[in-house]
Specification:
about 90 residues, alpha+beta, 3-stranded antiparallel sheet, 3 helices
């Protein structure tokens, strides 16, 4: 979550430099769809889709409704990997 917050709140290094921040959607896709593509697994994971691997993290808040400045307060509540709960707060 901290990396997503950093991506969406990124500021230009200097005046006149282009804005290189990500939208929340772009940041999430970087960890899901694009991450799967980077390891040649885009046909098996990276999306919640029938037939795909279903590793899921349940968060303590809706990150789409959370202000970017407060994303660091969102915590994982449950993690499911390979169909088994691997973490539960």
């Amino acid at each position: 979550i901290l990396s997503i917050q950093a991506a969406v709140m990124r500021k230009p290094w200097a005046e006149g430099m282009p804005d290189q921040s990500f939208s929340l959607q772009e940041a999430i896709e970087g960890y899901t769809v694009e991450g799967a593509y980077a390891e040649f697994m885009e046909h098996r994971k990276g999306r919640l889709k029938t037939g795909y691997l279903g590793d899921i993290v349940v968060l303590s808040a809706d990150i789409e409704a959370t202000a970017p400045e407060a994303l660091h307060t969102v915590r994982p509540v449950t993690t499911i990997c390979g169909g088994s709960i691997t973490y539960q707060a």
